[in-house]
Amino acid sequence: MSDWYKYLNIERDEHEDQLDMERVDAILFWGLAFIVLAIPLIVRVHIGDFISPSITEADILDTGKKADVFTYYKHILLLISTACLSLLFIYKVAVLRHSIPKTKINISLALLAIFITLSAVFAPYKTLALYGMYDRNEGTITYLCYLMLFFIAANIHYTEKRLKWALYCLYPFVMINTLLGIVNFYGYNVLELNWVKKLLYSNLPQGAKLTEGSRLIATINHGNYVSGISAVLTTLFFTWALLDKNKIRSIVNFVMSLLCFAMLLSSLSVSGFLTLTLILPIVFLFVFKSIYKRKFAVTFATFLVGAACVYVVMVNHNPKVWDETFGFFIKSNPFAEARAVVDELQQAFDASHVYAETGSNQENKEYQLPQLPESGVGPGSGRLYIWKKTWELIQYRPLFGYGLDTLPYFFPQDDPEKQANIETYTVIVDKPHNMYIGIAYGAGVIALLAFVAFIVNIGLLTIKRFISTKLVDDKQAIFASVAIACGAYLIQALFNDSIIGTAVIFWILLGLLVSFLIQNKQEKVS
Description:
- The chain is mainly α.
- It is built from 21 helices and two strands.
- It has helices spanning 14-38, 72-94, 104-121, 126-131, 140-154, 160-168, 171-185, 194-200, 223-243, 247-266, 271-287, 293-317, 320-323, 334-348, 360-368, 383-394, 418-421, 435-443, 445-468, 474-492, 500-525, and strands at 46-50, 64-68.
- It has a two-stranded antiparallel ribbon.
- Helix 5 runs parallel beside helix 21 and helix 9 packs antiparallel against helix 10.
Protein backbone atom coordinates (compact mmCIF):
# COMPACT_ATOMS: atom_id res chain seq x y z
CA MET A 1 0.00 0.00 0.00
CA SER A 2 2.75 2.45 0.95
CA ASP A 3 4.62 1.85 -2.39
CA TRP A 4 1.64 2.53 -4.66
CA TYR A 5 3.41 5.58 -6.13
CA LYS A 6 6.06 3.31 -7.78
CA TYR A 7 3.48 1.88 -10.14
CA LEU A 8 2.65 5.41 -11.33
CA ASN A 9 6.33 6.26 -11.88
CA ILE A 10 6.10 9.14 -9.41
CA GLU A 11 9.45 10.28 -8.08
CA ARG A 12 9.43 11.36 -4.43
CA ASP A 13 12.09 13.07 -2.35
CA GLU A 14 12.49 11.06 0.85
CA HIS A 15 13.98 14.01 2.73
CA GLU A 16 11.04 16.23 1.80
CA ASP A 17 8.63 13.44 2.77
CA GLN A 18 10.29 13.18 6.16
CA LEU A 19 9.96 16.93 6.72
CA ASP A 20 6.34 16.73 5.60
CA MET A 21 5.73 13.85 8.00
CA GLU A 22 7.09 15.88 10.90
CA ARG A 23 4.77 18.76 9.97
CA VAL A 24 1.82 16.39 9.69
CA ASP A 25 2.68 14.86 13.08
CA ALA A 26 2.69 18.34 14.59
CA ILE A 27 -0.76 19.11 13.15
CA LEU A 28 -2.11 15.73 14.26
CA PHE A 29 -0.75 16.25 17.76
CA TRP A 30 -2.26 19.70 18.19
CA GLY A 31 -5.52 18.38 16.81
CA LEU A 32 -5.56 15.67 19.47
CA ALA A 33 -4.54 18.19 22.12
CA PHE A 34 -7.46 20.40 21.07
CA ILE A 35 -9.84 17.45 21.49
CA VAL A 36 -8.52 16.75 24.99
CA LEU A 37 -8.80 20.44 25.86
CA ALA A 38 -12.16 21.31 24.31
CA ILE A 39 -14.51 18.31 24.18
CA PRO A 40 -14.67 17.58 27.96
CA LEU A 41 -15.53 21.25 28.61
CA ILE A 42 -18.34 21.79 26.09
CA VAL A 43 -21.71 22.33 27.77
CA ARG A 44 -24.66 23.71 25.86
CA VAL A 45 -28.40 23.11 25.80
CA HIS A 46 -29.62 21.39 22.65
CA ILE A 47 -33.25 20.57 21.93
CA GLY A 48 -33.93 18.28 19.01
CA ASP A 49 -36.35 15.72 17.65
CA PHE A 50 -35.92 12.15 18.84
CA ILE A 51 -37.68 9.31 17.04
CA SER A 52 -38.17 6.36 19.33
CA PRO A 53 -37.74 2.93 17.72
CA SER A 54 -40.73 1.57 19.65
CA ILE A 55 -43.90 2.75 21.33
CA THR A 56 -43.44 3.25 25.04
CA GLU A 57 -45.27 4.85 27.92
CA ALA A 58 -42.10 6.38 29.37
CA ASP A 59 -41.63 10.01 28.32
CA ILE A 60 -37.86 9.67 28.33
CA LEU A 61 -38.03 6.90 25.71
CA ASP A 62 -40.92 8.17 23.60
CA THR A 63 -40.79 10.12 20.33
CA GLY A 64 -40.73 13.90 20.67
CA LYS A 65 -38.63 16.95 21.48
CA LYS A 66 -35.74 16.03 23.78
CA ALA A 67 -33.24 18.21 25.57
CA ASP A 68 -29.57 17.48 26.16
CA VAL A 69 -26.92 19.57 27.89
CA PHE A 70 -23.73 17.51 28.03
CA THR A 71 -23.23 15.35 24.94
CA TYR A 72 -24.75 16.66 21.68
CA TYR A 73 -22.16 19.33 20.95
CA LYS A 74 -19.37 17.16 22.32
CA HIS A 75 -20.49 14.51 19.82
CA ILE A 76 -20.58 16.95 16.89
CA LEU A 77 -17.08 18.23 17.62
CA LEU A 78 -15.84 14.66 18.06
CA LEU A 79 -17.16 13.69 14.60
CA ILE A 80 -15.71 16.75 12.86
CA SER A 81 -12.34 16.49 14.60
CA THR A 82 -11.98 12.77 13.98
CA ALA A 83 -12.90 13.15 10.30
CA CYS A 84 -10.33 15.93 9.76
CA LEU A 85 -7.55 14.13 11.60
CA SER A 86 -8.36 10.85 9.82
CA LEU A 87 -7.99 12.46 6.38
CA LEU A 88 -4.64 13.92 7.39
CA PHE A 89 -3.52 10.57 8.81
CA ILE A 90 -4.49 8.81 5.56
CA TYR A 91 -2.32 11.34 3.71
CA LYS A 92 0.54 10.51 6.08
CA VAL A 93 0.22 6.77 5.42
CA ALA A 94 -0.68 6.74 1.71
CA VAL A 95 1.41 9.61 0.40
CA LEU A 96 4.22 10.09 2.91
CA ARG A 97 4.64 6.32 3.32
CA HIS A 98 4.41 6.15 7.10
CA SER A 99 4.95 2.53 8.11
CA ILE A 100 2.44 1.26 10.67
CA PRO A 101 4.14 -1.16 13.11
CA LYS A 102 2.82 -4.71 13.08
CA THR A 103 1.73 -5.52 16.63
CA LYS A 104 -0.77 -7.74 18.41
CA ILE A 105 -2.36 -4.54 19.66
CA ASN A 106 -3.43 -3.62 16.13
CA ILE A 107 -4.89 -7.09 15.53
CA SER A 108 -7.13 -6.95 18.60
CA LEU A 109 -8.02 -3.33 17.81
CA ALA A 110 -9.10 -4.30 14.29
CA LEU A 111 -11.18 -7.19 15.63
CA LEU A 112 -12.85 -4.85 18.12
CA ALA A 113 -13.63 -2.33 15.35
CA ILE A 114 -15.09 -5.07 13.12
CA PHE A 115 -17.46 -6.40 15.77
CA ILE A 116 -18.50 -2.93 16.87
CA THR A 117 -19.41 -2.23 13.23
CA LEU A 118 -21.22 -5.56 12.83
CA SER A 119 -23.17 -4.89 16.02
CA ALA A 120 -24.82 -1.92 14.29
CA VAL A 121 -25.46 -3.94 11.13
CA PHE A 122 -27.29 -6.68 13.04
CA ALA A 123 -28.84 -4.49 15.74
CA PRO A 124 -32.65 -4.63 16.07
CA TYR A 125 -32.71 -0.79 16.12
CA LYS A 126 -29.96 0.18 13.68
CA THR A 127 -30.26 3.96 13.72
CA LEU A 128 -30.29 4.01 17.50
CA ALA A 129 -27.26 1.70 17.57
CA LEU A 130 -25.37 4.00 15.21
CA TYR A 131 -25.94 7.22 17.14
CA GLY A 132 -26.96 6.12 20.62
CA MET A 133 -29.48 7.74 22.94
CA TYR A 134 -30.11 11.46 22.50
CA ASP A 135 -28.62 12.29 25.92
CA ARG A 136 -25.52 10.05 25.61
CA ASN A 137 -24.57 9.65 21.91
CA GLU A 138 -22.46 6.58 22.70
CA GLY A 139 -23.37 4.56 19.63
CA THR A 140 -21.23 2.75 17.06
CA ILE A 141 -20.05 5.92 15.34
CA THR A 142 -18.75 7.37 18.60
CA TYR A 143 -16.88 4.19 19.50
CA LEU A 144 -15.28 4.03 16.05
CA CYS A 145 -14.16 7.64 16.56
CA TYR A 146 -12.51 6.60 19.84
CA LEU A 147 -10.66 3.76 18.12
CA MET A 148 -9.54 6.01 15.28
CA LEU A 149 -8.28 8.68 17.67
CA PHE A 150 -6.35 6.01 19.57
CA PHE A 151 -4.84 4.70 16.34
CA ILE A 152 -3.78 8.16 15.23
CA ALA A 153 -2.33 8.97 18.66
CA ALA A 154 -0.44 5.66 18.68
CA ASN A 155 1.23 6.48 15.35
CA ILE A 156 2.64 9.92 16.10
CA HIS A 157 6.20 10.70 17.11
CA TYR A 158 6.12 12.73 20.33
CA THR A 159 8.81 15.13 21.41
CA GLU A 160 9.25 15.71 25.12
CA LYS A 161 7.64 19.14 24.74
CA ARG A 162 4.56 17.66 23.08
CA LEU A 163 4.19 15.04 25.80
CA LYS A 164 4.10 17.77 28.42
CA TRP A 165 1.59 19.85 26.47
CA ALA A 166 -0.67 16.83 26.10
CA LEU A 167 -1.03 16.81 29.90
CA TYR A 168 -1.10 20.60 30.29
CA CYS A 169 -4.29 20.54 28.19
CA LEU A 170 -6.03 18.82 31.13
CA TYR A 171 -5.39 21.72 33.52
CA PRO A 172 -8.45 23.77 32.43
CA PHE A 173 -10.73 20.76 32.85
CA VAL A 174 -9.47 20.21 36.39
CA MET A 175 -9.73 23.85 37.45
CA ILE A 176 -13.17 24.51 35.94
CA ASN A 177 -14.77 21.31 37.20
CA THR A 178 -13.21 21.56 40.65
CA LEU A 179 -14.60 25.09 40.91
CA LEU A 180 -18.06 23.96 39.77
CA GLY A 181 -18.01 20.97 42.12
CA ILE A 182 -16.90 22.93 45.19
CA VAL A 183 -19.32 25.80 44.53
CA ASN A 184 -22.20 23.34 44.24
CA PHE A 185 -20.98 21.36 47.26
CA TYR A 186 -21.27 24.45 49.43
CA GLY A 187 -24.77 25.22 48.21
CA TYR A 188 -24.28 27.84 45.52
CA ASN A 189 -26.09 27.45 42.19
CA VAL A 190 -24.10 28.89 39.29
CA LEU A 191 -27.22 28.78 37.11
CA GLU A 192 -28.43 31.80 39.02
CA LEU A 193 -25.69 33.83 37.30
CA ASN A 194 -26.86 35.47 34.08
CA TRP A 195 -23.56 35.02 32.24
CA VAL A 196 -23.65 31.28 32.99
CA LYS A 197 -27.18 31.08 31.58
CA LYS A 198 -25.99 32.83 28.42
CA LEU A 199 -23.15 30.34 28.05
CA LEU A 200 -25.52 27.42 28.61
CA TYR A 201 -28.25 28.67 26.29
CA SER A 202 -28.96 31.83 24.34
CA ASN A 203 -32.67 31.18 24.17
CA LEU A 204 -35.05 28.30 24.60
CA PRO A 205 -38.03 27.36 22.41
CA GLN A 206 -41.37 28.76 23.49
CA GLY A 207 -42.71 26.82 26.46
CA ALA A 208 -39.35 25.22 27.27
CA LYS A 209 -37.49 25.97 30.48
CA LEU A 210 -34.92 24.42 32.77
CA THR A 211 -36.37 22.19 35.46
CA GLU A 212 -36.80 24.05 38.72
CA GLY A 213 -33.87 23.38 41.02
CA SER A 214 -31.50 22.45 38.17
CA ARG A 215 -27.82 22.80 38.98
CA LEU A 216 -24.67 22.70 36.89
CA ILE A 217 -22.21 20.61 38.91
CA ALA A 218 -19.72 19.74 36.16
CA THR A 219 -19.13 19.84 32.43
CA ILE A 220 -19.80 16.09 32.19
CA ASN A 221 -23.03 14.20 32.67
CA HIS A 222 -23.19 12.96 36.25
CA GLY A 223 -21.43 12.83 39.61
CA ASN A 224 -20.48 9.19 39.02
CA TYR A 225 -18.43 10.19 35.97
CA VAL A 226 -16.95 13.18 37.80
CA SER A 227 -15.83 10.82 40.55
CA GLY A 228 -14.28 8.36 38.10
CA ILE A 229 -12.33 10.89 36.03
CA SER A 230 -11.26 12.69 39.22
CA ALA A 231 -9.55 9.52 40.41
CA VAL A 232 -7.84 9.13 37.02
CA LEU A 233 -6.53 12.70 37.02
CA THR A 234 -5.57 12.59 40.70
CA THR A 235 -3.40 9.59 39.88
CA LEU A 236 -1.99 11.20 36.74
CA PHE A 237 -0.88 14.47 38.33
CA PHE A 238 0.22 12.91 41.62
CA THR A 239 2.49 10.42 39.83
CA TRP A 240 3.91 13.17 37.65
CA ALA A 241 4.56 15.30 40.74
CA LEU A 242 6.39 12.36 42.34
CA LEU A 243 8.71 11.79 39.39
CA ASP A 244 9.20 15.20 37.81
CA LYS A 245 12.66 16.74 38.29
CA ASN A 246 11.32 20.25 37.62
CA LYS A 247 10.45 21.61 41.08
CA ILE A 248 7.97 24.27 39.95
CA ARG A 249 6.06 21.90 37.68
CA SER A 250 6.15 19.26 40.39
CA ILE A 251 4.48 21.69 42.82
CA VAL A 252 1.88 22.68 40.21
CA ASN A 253 1.02 19.03 39.53
CA PHE A 254 0.87 18.34 43.26
CA VAL A 255 -1.70 21.14 43.63
CA MET A 256 -3.59 19.76 40.62
CA SER A 257 -3.76 16.34 42.26
CA LEU A 258 -5.26 17.87 45.41
CA LEU A 259 -7.78 19.82 43.32
CA CYS A 260 -8.75 16.57 41.60
CA PHE A 261 -9.20 14.92 44.99
CA ALA A 262 -11.46 17.77 46.13
CA MET A 263 -13.44 17.38 42.88
CA LEU A 264 -13.76 13.66 43.64
CA LEU A 265 -15.16 14.32 47.11
CA SER A 266 -17.57 17.00 45.86
CA SER A 267 -19.09 14.50 43.40
CA LEU A 268 -20.49 12.43 46.31
CA SER A 269 -19.93 9.19 44.41
CA VAL A 270 -17.95 6.20 45.64
CA SER A 271 -16.48 4.94 42.33
CA GLY A 272 -13.54 7.35 42.30
CA PHE A 273 -12.59 6.67 45.91
CA LEU A 274 -12.61 2.92 45.28
CA THR A 275 -10.40 3.48 42.23
CA LEU A 276 -7.91 5.50 44.28
CA THR A 277 -7.91 2.85 47.00
CA LEU A 278 -6.94 0.24 44.42
CA ILE A 279 -4.50 2.29 42.33
CA LEU A 280 -2.42 4.10 44.98
CA PRO A 281 -0.69 0.87 46.15
CA ILE A 282 0.25 0.29 42.50
CA VAL A 283 1.67 3.81 42.33
CA PHE A 284 3.70 3.07 45.45
CA LEU A 285 5.03 -0.27 44.15
CA PHE A 286 5.98 0.83 40.63
CA VAL A 287 7.09 4.40 41.23
CA PHE A 288 9.12 3.59 44.35
CA LYS A 289 11.77 2.17 42.06
CA SER A 290 12.53 5.78 41.13
CA ILE A 291 15.98 6.91 42.20
CA TYR A 292 14.50 9.95 43.97
CA LYS A 293 13.59 8.02 47.10
CA ARG A 294 13.67 11.01 49.44
CA LYS A 295 11.51 13.19 47.21
CA PHE A 296 9.16 10.27 46.70
CA ALA A 297 8.67 9.76 50.45
CA VAL A 298 8.24 13.46 51.21
CA THR A 299 5.80 14.06 48.33
CA PHE A 300 3.76 10.95 49.12
CA ALA A 301 3.48 11.88 52.80
CA THR A 302 2.64 15.51 51.97
CA PHE A 303 -0.10 14.38 49.61
CA LEU A 304 -1.65 12.17 52.27
CA VAL A 305 -1.61 15.05 54.76
CA GLY A 306 -3.04 17.49 52.21
CA ALA A 307 -5.74 15.05 51.11
CA ALA A 308 -6.64 14.40 54.76
CA CYS A 309 -7.05 18.16 55.37
CA VAL A 310 -9.29 18.52 52.31
CA TYR A 311 -11.27 15.50 53.43
CA VAL A 312 -11.83 16.75 57.00
CA VAL A 313 -13.00 20.17 55.82
CA MET A 314 -15.46 18.71 53.30
CA VAL A 315 -16.80 15.89 55.46
CA ASN A 316 -17.49 18.33 58.28
CA HIS A 317 -19.61 20.36 55.90
CA ASN A 318 -21.45 17.33 54.51
CA PRO A 319 -21.20 13.95 56.33
CA LYS A 320 -22.32 12.20 53.12
CA VAL A 321 -18.69 12.50 52.00
CA TRP A 322 -17.93 9.74 54.53
CA ASP A 323 -20.76 7.57 53.17
CA GLU A 324 -19.33 7.80 49.64
CA THR A 325 -15.74 7.08 50.69
CA PHE A 326 -14.84 5.18 53.85
CA GLY A 327 -18.52 4.45 54.39
CA PHE A 328 -18.24 1.85 51.63
CA PHE A 329 -16.11 -0.21 54.04
CA ILE A 330 -17.35 1.10 57.42
CA LYS A 331 -21.11 1.47 57.70
CA SER A 332 -21.22 3.70 60.78
CA ASN A 333 -20.68 7.40 60.04
CA PRO A 334 -18.93 9.25 62.91
CA PHE A 335 -19.61 12.63 61.29
CA ALA A 336 -23.34 12.10 60.77
CA GLU A 337 -24.17 11.86 64.47
CA ALA A 338 -22.66 15.27 65.17
CA ARG A 339 -24.82 16.83 62.47
CA ALA A 340 -28.07 14.95 63.11
CA VAL A 341 -29.67 17.51 65.45
CA VAL A 342 -28.69 20.45 63.25
CA ASP A 343 -30.06 18.77 60.12
CA GLU A 344 -33.36 17.96 61.80
CA LEU A 345 -33.79 21.59 62.85
CA GLN A 346 -32.96 22.81 59.36
CA GLN A 347 -35.41 20.43 57.70
CA ALA A 348 -38.15 21.42 60.14
CA PHE A 349 -38.05 25.01 58.86
CA ASP A 350 -37.05 24.39 55.23
CA ALA A 351 -40.05 24.43 52.90
CA SER A 352 -37.92 23.01 50.06
CA HIS A 353 -38.12 19.59 51.74
CA VAL A 354 -41.79 19.18 50.86
CA TYR A 355 -42.03 16.46 48.20
CA ALA A 356 -44.93 15.76 45.87
CA GLU A 357 -44.62 12.04 46.60
CA THR A 358 -45.93 12.54 50.13
CA GLY A 359 -49.35 13.61 48.88
CA SER A 360 -52.35 11.73 47.62
CA ASN A 361 -50.62 10.88 44.34
CA GLN A 362 -48.22 8.54 46.14
CA GLU A 363 -51.12 6.98 48.02
CA ASN A 364 -52.79 6.25 44.71
CA LYS A 365 -49.60 4.65 43.37
CA GLU A 366 -49.33 2.46 46.44
CA TYR A 367 -52.97 1.46 46.05
CA GLN A 368 -52.55 0.67 42.36
CA LEU A 369 -49.33 -1.30 42.80
CA PRO A 370 -49.55 -3.10 46.14
CA GLN A 371 -47.41 -5.98 44.86
CA LEU A 372 -44.22 -3.95 44.57
CA PRO A 373 -41.48 -4.87 47.05
CA GLU A 374 -40.36 -2.36 49.63
CA SER A 375 -38.25 0.47 48.26
CA GLY A 376 -34.53 0.00 48.82
CA VAL A 377 -31.04 0.20 47.34
CA GLY A 378 -29.32 -3.01 46.28
CA PRO A 379 -25.60 -3.81 46.56
CA GLY A 380 -23.36 -1.32 44.77
CA SER A 381 -26.15 1.29 44.67
CA GLY A 382 -28.18 -1.13 42.58
CA ARG A 383 -25.34 -1.92 40.18
CA LEU A 384 -25.25 -5.65 40.93
CA TYR A 385 -28.94 -5.88 40.06
CA ILE A 386 -28.41 -4.00 36.76
CA TRP A 387 -25.35 -6.12 35.90
CA LYS A 388 -27.27 -9.34 36.55
CA LYS A 389 -30.21 -8.34 34.36
CA THR A 390 -27.92 -7.08 31.58
CA TRP A 391 -25.92 -10.32 31.55
CA GLU A 392 -29.20 -12.20 31.21
CA LEU A 393 -29.88 -10.14 28.08
CA ILE A 394 -26.39 -10.82 26.70
CA GLN A 395 -27.05 -14.56 26.79
CA TYR A 396 -29.76 -14.14 24.13
CA ARG A 397 -27.52 -12.21 21.68
CA PRO A 398 -23.91 -13.06 22.61
CA LEU A 399 -22.35 -12.75 19.13
CA PHE A 400 -23.17 -9.22 17.98
CA GLY A 401 -25.11 -7.82 20.93
CA TYR A 402 -28.04 -5.43 20.70
CA GLY A 403 -26.22 -2.34 19.45
CA LEU A 404 -24.29 0.11 21.61
CA ASP A 405 -26.29 2.49 23.82
CA THR A 406 -29.64 0.74 23.25
CA LEU A 407 -30.12 -0.72 26.74
CA PRO A 408 -33.21 1.36 27.68
CA TYR A 409 -35.32 -0.48 25.10
CA PHE A 410 -34.31 -4.01 26.10
CA PHE A 411 -33.82 -3.81 29.85
CA PRO A 412 -36.87 -5.22 31.73
CA GLN A 413 -38.10 -1.81 32.87
CA ASP A 414 -41.28 -3.34 34.35
CA ASP A 415 -39.35 -5.72 36.62
CA PRO A 416 -40.80 -5.39 40.17
CA GLU A 417 -37.33 -5.94 41.66
CA LYS A 418 -36.30 -2.47 40.47
CA GLN A 419 -38.16 -1.10 43.48
CA ALA A 420 -36.02 -3.11 45.89
CA ASN A 421 -32.69 -2.39 44.14
CA ILE A 422 -32.83 1.15 42.75
CA GLU A 423 -35.40 2.68 45.11
CA THR A 424 -38.23 3.22 42.63
CA TYR A 425 -39.81 1.46 39.66
CA THR A 426 -40.14 4.83 37.84
CA VAL A 427 -36.40 5.05 37.12
CA ILE A 428 -35.47 4.09 33.56
CA VAL A 429 -32.34 1.94 33.45
CA ASP A 430 -30.53 3.31 30.38
CA LYS A 431 -26.95 2.10 30.94
CA PRO A 432 -25.23 -0.87 32.64
CA HIS A 433 -22.90 1.19 34.91
CA ASN A 434 -19.96 -0.92 33.73
CA MET A 435 -18.00 -0.22 30.54
CA TYR A 436 -17.08 -3.88 30.00
CA ILE A 437 -20.64 -5.13 30.36
CA GLY A 438 -21.69 -2.26 28.11
CA ILE A 439 -19.36 -3.49 25.35
CA ALA A 440 -20.56 -7.09 25.74
CA TYR A 441 -24.21 -6.00 25.68
CA GLY A 442 -23.82 -3.58 22.79
CA ALA A 443 -21.30 -5.33 20.52
CA GLY A 444 -21.18 -8.92 21.76
CA VAL A 445 -18.91 -11.16 23.79
CA ILE A 446 -16.25 -11.41 21.05
CA ALA A 447 -15.96 -7.61 21.04
CA LEU A 448 -15.44 -7.70 24.80
CA LEU A 449 -12.76 -10.40 24.44
CA ALA A 450 -11.06 -8.35 21.72
CA PHE A 451 -11.08 -5.30 24.00
CA VAL A 452 -9.65 -7.33 26.89
CA ALA A 453 -6.94 -8.76 24.61
CA PHE A 454 -6.19 -5.24 23.40
CA ILE A 455 -5.77 -3.96 26.97
CA VAL A 456 -3.80 -7.02 28.13
CA ASN A 457 -1.30 -6.62 25.28
CA ILE A 458 -0.75 -2.98 26.17
CA GLY A 459 -0.55 -3.86 29.86
CA LEU A 460 2.11 -6.52 29.32
CA LEU A 461 4.27 -4.17 27.25
CA THR A 462 3.87 -1.47 29.90
CA ILE A 463 4.84 -3.77 32.76
CA LYS A 464 7.92 -4.95 30.85
CA ARG A 465 8.85 -1.34 30.31
CA PHE A 466 8.45 -0.57 34.01
CA ILE A 467 10.60 -3.54 35.02
CA SER A 468 13.43 -2.83 32.57
CA THR A 469 13.69 0.94 33.03
CA LYS A 470 14.53 3.37 35.78
CA LEU A 471 12.23 6.39 35.80
CA VAL A 472 14.99 8.97 35.62
CA ASP A 473 14.01 11.52 32.94
CA ASP A 474 11.02 13.67 32.01
CA LYS A 475 9.80 11.41 29.21
CA GLN A 476 9.78 8.37 31.44
CA ALA A 477 8.04 10.34 34.21
CA ILE A 478 5.23 11.21 31.78
CA PHE A 479 5.13 7.62 30.54
CA ALA A 480 4.66 6.32 34.10
CA SER A 481 2.03 8.95 34.87
CA VAL A 482 0.00 8.19 31.74
CA ALA A 483 0.31 4.43 32.19
CA ILE A 484 -0.96 4.48 35.77
CA ALA A 485 -3.73 6.96 34.86
CA CYS A 486 -4.93 4.64 32.07
CA GLY A 487 -4.92 1.81 34.62
CA ALA A 488 -7.06 3.95 36.94
CA TYR A 489 -9.53 4.61 34.12
CA LEU A 490 -9.88 0.88 33.47
CA ILE A 491 -10.53 0.29 37.18
CA GLN A 492 -13.21 2.99 37.47
CA ALA A 493 -14.78 1.57 34.29
CA LEU A 494 -15.85 -1.40 36.45
CA PHE A 495 -18.37 0.96 38.08
CA ASN A 496 -19.00 3.55 35.35
CA ASP A 497 -20.00 3.68 31.70
CA SER A 498 -18.13 5.22 28.84
CA ILE A 499 -19.15 8.82 28.07
CA ILE A 500 -17.75 11.22 25.48
CA GLY A 501 -16.51 13.76 28.02
CA THR A 502 -14.09 11.35 29.67
CA ALA A 503 -13.57 8.63 27.05
CA VAL A 504 -11.72 10.95 24.65
CA ILE A 505 -9.17 11.65 27.39
CA PHE A 506 -8.61 7.93 27.98
CA TRP A 507 -8.33 6.84 24.34
CA ILE A 508 -5.93 9.62 23.36
CA LEU A 509 -3.74 9.10 26.44
CA LEU A 510 -3.75 5.37 25.74
CA GLY A 511 -2.60 6.07 22.18
CA LEU A 512 0.16 8.29 23.54
CA LEU A 513 1.24 5.45 25.84
CA VAL A 514 1.36 2.91 22.99
CA SER A 515 3.34 5.32 20.80
CA PHE A 516 5.89 5.67 23.60
CA LEU A 517 6.13 1.88 23.99
CA ILE A 518 6.55 1.25 20.25
CA GLN A 519 9.00 4.12 19.83
CA ASN A 520 11.09 2.82 22.72
CA LYS A 521 11.07 -0.69 21.25
CA GLN A 522 12.20 0.60 17.85
CA GLU A 523 15.01 2.63 19.45
CA LYS A 524 16.28 -0.51 21.21
CA VAL A 525 16.25 -2.49 17.93
CA SER A 526 18.11 0.24 16.06
